[in-house]
Design goal:
7 strands
Length: 237
Amino acid sequence: MNEPLAERVRPKTLDEYISQHHLVGEKGSLTHQIKKGIIPSLILWGPPGTGKTTLANIIAEESKRPFYVLSAINSGVKDIREVIDKAKQAGGLFTAKNPILFIDEIHRFSKSQQDSLLAAVEKGWVTLIGATTENPSFEVIPALLSRCQVYILNAFGKTDLENLIKRAMEKDSILKSKKIDLKETEALLRISGGDGRKLLNVFELVVNSEESDTVVITDELVLSKVQKNTVLYDKTG
């Protein structure tokens, strides 16, 4: 089975990353730090599908650091300690290249789970990157929050979303094998709600639902295909 389109075209470098210019554009607040490899522990706060996980991957890649991932949905204190122990051994203590520990949906961690991260962050055993869709001021414990910089990611704008579709059509081998005429984009953009992942999922759904390899994307076609698949697009996306 093929990976979803959003995974297949996930950016691997800072140059490929679309949107969030205030963070990683030419004068972005994170650009200089990433290029130099001097990364503070940080929390990425923004709506779903705005590139939080992608940005964490790129930061690790550009700064040439070991990268460890935990999901707050299925990780307990034991898992956190195991990953921190691995990270300590991989990075070498107190080096500039300490490993990155990425925690998706960090707002779902309990107080005790967040407490278990404190020593590792404080002593520099890991550089923590947390991703959250919730305001970290309310969801992350003060002791951990005070050790992290908070960066806000914005929902994708119209230009960003259109660029995402165009790049997918140019880069993805499956889409490149088809003749796609992007005649109208308004319905696609509206359904996405500024969520890049959802946009690409809907776009792929519409393209794959056509039997022919020649696909003309119109608002009418998009709406008719999505309405037949509304169960996929509930309030949780």
